[in-house]
Description:
By secondary structure, the chain is mainly beta. The protein is built from no helices and seven strands. It has a three-stranded antiparallel beta sheet with strand order 3-4-7, with no helix packed on it. A two-stranded antiparallel ribbon has the order 1-2. It is globular, with a radius of gyration of 12 Å. About 10% of the residues have low confidence.
Amino acid sequence: VSTSIETGMVAVESGVMISPNPMSDQFIITLKDQEISPKAIKIFTADGRQVMEMDYREEVLVSSLSAGLYL
């Protein structure tokens, strides 16, 4: 799981916690810096294909995704 957020054109590293890892049906995003306000969540396969996009939310359901590595 990649833990970066794009804010405009800048990726913010280490200010994001995603749990649990590994996950099965859902994950929770916790932002350490409350001034960051992401607009969307994008999930990619390890080979770079985008498989999901949604408005930002703290709890993300991923039960529709096959088992694998996602960014």
